[in-house]
Amino acid sequence: MLYQAEWCPFSAAVREVLTELGLDVVLRQVEPEPEQRAEMREVTGTDSIPALVSEDGSVHRGTRAIFAHLRERDPGRCAAAHRRRYAEHREARETEATGRLIEHFRNAAELEAVEQDCAALRRSRRSPPT
């Protein structure tokens, strides 16, 4: 199980390596702010992403620890082809093509409402209890 977020570049790097290795993984989307990740903290002992819980129940926290764990695995049979395809799509990643697609999918009013909700949540956490 991989605790991660799509916006996190470190999570993306781990997903890419998992793909190269041919390993299936259950993705757990985390809350946007670390202080909101109580369930993740309970399972992994951290609120930082990415965190991988492997088949044997061991927890690997952070990209370096996850990569060290994954280096023990044999390359997947399609690893080279996945690396080639990754390189072929470099321009799309660098030009934020996926970000523009997501913005096209959503409308501006929806994005503004989400940003306002997040800002209100952050303000409420900073306010002392009454």
* Shape, principal axes of CA atoms: flat
For the termini, the CA-CA separation is 39 Å
Uncertain segments of ≥5 residues (pLDDT<50)? none
> Main sheet, how many strands, which sense, barrel?
4 strands, mixed
Order of secondary-structure elements: EHEHEEHHHHH
List the helices and strands and how they pair.
Elements: E1 2-4, H1 9-21, E2 27-29, H2 38-44, E3 51-53, E4 59-61, H3 63-70, H4 79-88, H5 90-94, H6 97-105, H7 108-126
Parallel strand pairs: 1-2
Antiparallel strand pairs: 1-3, 3-4
Helix pairs in contact: 1-3, 1-4
Observed structural traits:
130 residues, alpha+beta, Glutaredoxin, 2 domains, four-stranded mixed sheet, 7 helices, flat
Give an overview in words.
By secondary structure, the chain is of the alpha+beta class. It folds into 2 domains: 2-79, Glutaredoxin; 96-126. 55% of the residues lie in helices and 9% in strands. The chain is built from 7 helices and 4 strands. It has helices at 9-21, 38-44, 63-70, 79-88, 90-94, 97-105, 108-126, and strands at 2-4, 27-29, 51-53, 59-61. The chain has a 4-stranded mixed β-sheet. Helix 1 links the parallel strand 1 and strand 2 (27-29). Helix 1 (9-21) packs parallel to helix 3 (63-70) and helix 1 runs antiparallel to helix 4 (79-88). It is flat. The mean pLDDT is 88.
Short structural summary:
With 130 residues, the chain is α+β, with helices and mostly antiparallel strands. It has helices at 9-21, 38-44, 63-70, 79-88, 90-94, 97-105, 108-126, and strands at residues 2-4, 27-29, 51-53, 59-61. The protein contains seven helices and four strands; from the N terminus they run βαβαββααααα.
